[in-house]
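ok so I'm stuck.
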Amino acid sequence: MSQVRQIPEGTLKRLNKYLSILRAFNKRNREYITNAHLSSFVDQSIQTIRKDLDHVDSWTSNSEIHNIEYLIKITEAYLGFTNTEEAFLIIENNLHTEDIISIIKEKIKIKIIAVFSENKKDSENYKKDNIKILDLSKLEELSDRMHIKTAVVVAKPNNAQSMVNCLSDYGFLKIYNCSKAQLISSDCIKMLECNQYFENILL
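replied:
not stuck anymore, here's the structure
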């Protein structure tokens, strides 16, 4: 991870965007993509794409056409996304954080690094594990800085979809849906349904 932190923040954000596009093409069974084609989707010059990919793999950056599955694999490894044991929790203001985190630990078995909700004070901490509770406006910045692109969404249906839309814009790759709604996401996001664990909380 130290290697990732040495490159410009703008490059990290662009790599996240490239990865989202590549995963979407991979789901559609596309095997190859050119620099020119990728450029048209991410609104970046071919030269910028070459420079960004040089951080991931110098051999790949010299090629004009890429195997999508291979490029996904090396980019995920470089950004640290192969470790999906850590996640951010996105919740509504009125839900009980301690109960939710306890259920996540027992049933989903992933580690929550921080909790995000609207209008939360940054000084507020989850008392048991000292997990920070932050305002939702800080989610994009922290996810890019910590390279965490997995989230758990616990919300009522009318709010859950807007949360997922936000996570999609920020380049998240895996979402645990703990709402009672069938949520719509982009092709590049892996959506896992976990609402059965939170039926009593979301009454």
